Amino acid sequence: MEKYLMAIDAGTGSVRAILFDTLGNELFVTQAEWTHNEDKRYPGSMDFDINRNIEIIIGLIKELLAKSQVNPEDIAAISTTSMREAIILYDEDGKELWACANVDSRANDEVANLYQISDTIEEDIHQISGQTFSLGAIPRILWVKKNIPETYDKIKYVTMLNDWITYRLTGVISVEPSNGCTTGLFNLKKRVWDPSISEKVSLRMDIFPVVNESGSIIGPVTEEFARLTGLSVQTLVVAGGGDAQLGCIGMGVINEGDAAVLGGSFWQYEYTSNQVEINDSCNVRVNCHAIPNTWQYEAIAFFPGLIMRWFRDTFCELEAYLQKETGESIYTQMEKRAKDVPAGCHGMVCTFSDKMDYFSWKHAAPSFIDFKIDSSFNKATFYRAIMENAAFVTKGNIECVSTITNKTPESIVFGGGASKSDLWCQIVSDVLQMNVKVPVVKESTALGAAICAGVGAGIYGSFNEAIDQVVKFEKSFEPNETNRAVYEELYKKWEAVYKVQLELANQGITDHMWIAPGL
Fold first, then answer.
1. What is the pLDDT of residues 30-47, one digit of tens each?
2. Residue ranges of domains in the chain, CATH in brackets
3. Three-class SS state of 105
4. Fewest CB atoms within 10 Å of the CB: 63, 190, 412, 414?
């Protein structure tokens, strides 16, 4: 009898339920957008609507079962994945008290107050946790303590968003390390909560649920959730993980020295290691991988995918019209034209995301620099420059991580939406001067969740066995040697230009594209 695996993938802008077979083939998908609303009383807040969003998830599961017509008892296991940094607070009865999305930025004052504790408080915590205050849970929970103390007093547990979905499926409150560590309240090496960090920042030390590694069984689907969705109580629920880490599993990036770039709205560079050291030059993020006894050095580039979408929506009206007339996508049209633009875009560079600096994380004002008033600089030139900029940031981030690890990967796996573009893949290969491999399944996060489900259910004997069975590659790109010198020189120029542009923003002459809370 054929068995199936289900993944629930909760992103920033949408949530999906996906059904896979045990060979890793995506069979059916249901998806819905969701929004996270600002509480007008608190600028920068981005609340996560627990009641509305669980109804969306229930509806997607019911729709998936109806579309697929599979027997629910044949779904061997379910696992969950989500955006990282989104947190849920619960009371002792398991009722959700408060929740925020990963993009919540209300805790600016709390970050400033943390810096008053000592000059080295952030560095000290980073040495233990691999995190800073930029994205972690510490400032947000301190915000709750200050602004809604009656809620803070009731807190019994804190979990991440993927853990919350698992809780709703099983009735068990737990956390797995790959996303849990992004709270900044974990001992990174031990992969467990570290109450001493809470003590340093005057947070309660008794709000931490049990930790279960990704791929471990949490429990079966409860009778209540089976009644709401049509799922079977025989289906196991398995601990999943953070979206980037499960995306790496879905691309086979789990062993020492494996490296990946996940090219979505943000671009994450992930370098895998079986041991972790945080030294004084470490200005990137270090996370638990969703593989036991494995970690990842992570460097993040802000918004490459969003910038490309902005360019499409703002400047490609003609291409949008032609898309309706011919069916050829805007991106395909623009890529054809951008291929004819020479490498280096005639010397033009643009500034969007900077290389990652986890302790002073800010980006210059968006700009295009050094273009001439002639026909060489057309829409396609600017389009290609955006692609090259993303590759330059990636090169810089790889160099940052290599400084820490003293190792540079021989090749990278490139996934996410950006990897659908052959031109972008080739530009990344040319700028990095390394082989770039593209998996068949580019949206690999859900596949990683399905693999976790299969490992937990015993369908696969191990993560490596699962990857051997389900992860396949469809393309490989080798660097074009004729472009090496062009990109080496332009990268130096980009670094110099960015330094000046960032200083303009620091002086208040221009506005930062993004700046971390408290800076």
1. 999 999 999 999 999 999
2. 4-250+441-474 (3.30.420.40), 301-439+480-515 (3.30.420.40)
3. coil
4. 190
